[in-house]
Design brief:
- By secondary structure, the protein is an all-alpha fold.
- It has a single domain, classed as Hypothetical protein af1432 (Orthogonal Bundle).
- Helix content is 66%, strand content 0%.
- It is globular.
């Protein structure tokens, strides 16, 4: 399956506002994939599909993950809407017939990040956070994030912002996000292949 076909499938499932966001994520993902010499077609497919399961409610996603033995972190079980990445990752290979583990990991970990999300996951995580439709950032914020020299520093910037936001709203910073942040702070690199 190619990107154009997948885009049509996603358009039929997502609400117009969600689909507009997905297209914004595609735009940023394509730029980042080119910059860091990743497969642009794969990055675009990951990006357009990342919110595929957002039509489901939290309880439905929780039941789905339990039924399909999808591993969850405590924060996802506490806030089941975070599981839309896990559910979409399950659907991606079954809909596209593309069993590329890089895509599955990227989609799976785009909500909270993970040291195991790989370069494509890093692209998606940054693009999802910073696409131009996101109102929590201005153009200067985007330039700070996108101006970092590599994907690891971009993700670290986003994670630091997420941690600061969690503190201001008295919400616990997810343990998997903290682990990813510590991994990057210690010089860890995302898998490229």
């Amino acid at each position: 399956m190619d990107y154009i076909t997948l885009e049509k499938i996603v358009r039929d499932v997502e609400k117009p506002s969600r689909f507009e966001h997905s297209l914004g994520v595609v735009e940023v993902s394509e730029v980042l994939a080119k910059r860091f010499r990743l497969d642009c077609e794969l990055a675009k497919m990951i990006a357009v599909f990342h919110d595929y399961a957002r039509y489901m409610d939290g309880d439905e996603m929780l039941r789905f993950c339990r039924k399909h033995d999808i591993e969850m972190v405590p924060e996802e079980e506490e806030s089941p809407m975070l599981l839309h990445g896990a559910v979409a990752a399950w659907y991606f290979p079954r809909i596209t017939n593309n069993w590329d583990e890089r895509a599955v990991k990227a989609i799976r970990h785009h909500t909270l990040a993970s040291a195991h999300m790989g370069a494509y996951g890093a692209v998606l995580y940054v693009a999802d956070y910073s696409e131009k439709g996101r109102r929590h950032l201005d153009d200067n914020d985007r330039l700070v994030i996108w101006g970092k020299p590599n994907l690891e520093k971009m993700v670290l910037e986003v994670l630091t912002r997420e941690e600061d936001y969690s503190f201001t709203v008295s919400r616990r910073f997810a343990s998997v996000s903290q682990e990813c942040k510590e991994y990057l702070e210690s010089g860890g690199l995302f898998e490229r292949s």
